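Quick one, T. Sequence first:
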Amino acid sequence: MLHKVSDNANGTPVWPNMHEALMELHEILHEWCQAATSTSEALERLRSQHLTRRSTGSVCGPNNAGTPIRVPFLKIPLKAGYVEAAQRDIEEIMRPSAPLAQRWNSAKRRQAARRTLLGLMRLYCADLLEEFERAVDARASWMLANREEVNKALQEGLRSERLEYLIQQAADTAAQLDSAREHLSLLIRENYPMGLTGGQDA
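C-alpha cells:
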C-alpha cells in the first residue's frame, strides 16, 4: 500500500475529464437558474398584489397597518448559505484540490493546480469562461446584497420604487446566468455527442 501511495505522489497529475466537468458545471447553473426563476416569480407576484391593493385604495409597503402581503409560493427562498454553497461547488469543479498523496510534494501540488477545468476553458473557450464568471459574480453579488430584504419583503411588502428596482436587478442577473448556461449547453452538445463514453479527453 505504501508503494502505491508513493506512486500516486510521484505520478504526473492528470488533466480533468472536460466533458464530465462541464456537465457538472451545467447542472449547477441549471439549478441556480431554476432558483432565480422562482425568486423572480415571487417578486412579480408581490408587484401584482401591490397593484391590486393600490386599485382598491389600500396602502402597500412595510408600514401598512393592514394584512401583510405574503407570497407563499416561493419554491426556493433566498436562504443563507445557498449562494455560498453554489460558489464552493463551482470552485471545486473549476479548481479541484490536488489528490491527497500529491499534496505533500510541492512541485506536484503546483502542477495539479495548473491542470484544471479553468485552465482548459481559458484555452479553448475564453469568451464563455468570461461570460460565466461575470454572470455568477453578478448574481452572487445581487443575492448577498439583497436576500434579507427580499425575504422580508415577501412577508411584509415593500415600497413600489424599491420593489421595481429589485425586480429589474433580479431579472438582469437571472438573464445573465441563463445565457451562460445556454452557451455552456451549446458547447457541450457541439463537442460531446450524446452517448459518448466517459474517460479522459483526448
